[in-house]
């Protein structure tokens, strides 16, 4: 039997025993970004104790310069093992058969990279640390890209994205309500600090609303605003 055919049969046989673990991993990526890679099959070697396969004749001998090209292979799950028999990559579909996912694991059995479509068909790319927790997430949501960098506590600390056509980068503190954000609107750039979910400083193109009249004023890029703990402007220059 050719090595290519042996590989396909091995993947198909092992997949039945790990598909549940694969999709527990997929759901964890959406929720927490942390999951163990599917456990190593309990066999001494990859080919020991596999379910019996139908007898398949070897392909006919080829003449010099001829090759066999497999145009397609149909399956629900493929498992790639390393030389030691450890599962290192998984390609599969979800329980409903409509959520493709490709995951890569390290030698310790932890998932390190996952590329998939979510149940809402959003492209999602996630990188995990050695502890299995998410460190980097890149997703296209509502046809707009977002990138999130997380710390050891799985908190988003740097966020890059485009919202309503406006690019922005935010640096987030340990308290999610504390952040510094740089963005560019149609009128120009704006930089602001927020603490406890309250705006405390803004530099650049900013709009303010008069509490009495409701009048909205747009300020030029050279303007600096300082806000009090009540979120109201306390000082402005120029």
Q: What is the gist of this entry?
A:
By secondary structure, the chain is mostly beta strands. It has one helix at 3-31, and strands at residues 77-81, 87-92, 101-105, 111-117, 123-128, 134-141, 144-150, 156-163, 166-172, 179-185, 188-195, 198-204, 206-209, 216-219, 224-227, 233-237.
Description:
This protein is mainly β. The chain has a domain at 1-117. Helix content is 12%, strand content 41%. It has one helix spanning 3-31, and strands spanning 77-81, 87-92, 101-105, 111-117, 123-128, 134-141, 144-150, 156-163, 166-172, 179-185, 188-195, 198-204, 206-209, 216-219, 224-227, 233-237. It has a 14-stranded antiparallel β-sheet with strand order 1-2-3-4-5-6-7-8-9-10-11-12-15-16. Strands 13-14 form a two-stranded antiparallel ribbon. The longest helix has 29 residues, at 3-31. The radius of gyration is 26 Å and the shape is elongated. It starts with a helix and ends with a strand. The relative contact order is 0.09. The model is unreliable at 1-60 (pLDDT under 50).
Strand percentage, roughly? 35-45%
Sequence of strands across the biggest β-sheet: 1-2-3-4-5-6-7-8-9-10-11-12-15-16
Oligomer: single chain
User: Helix amount, in percent?
Assistant: 10-25%
Taking Cα atoms only, what radius of gyration do you get, to the nearest Å? 26 Å
Total helices: the number is: 1
Low-confidence stretches: 1-60
Largest sheet: 14 strands, antiparallel
Counting DSSP E segments of at least 2 residues, the number of strands comes to 16
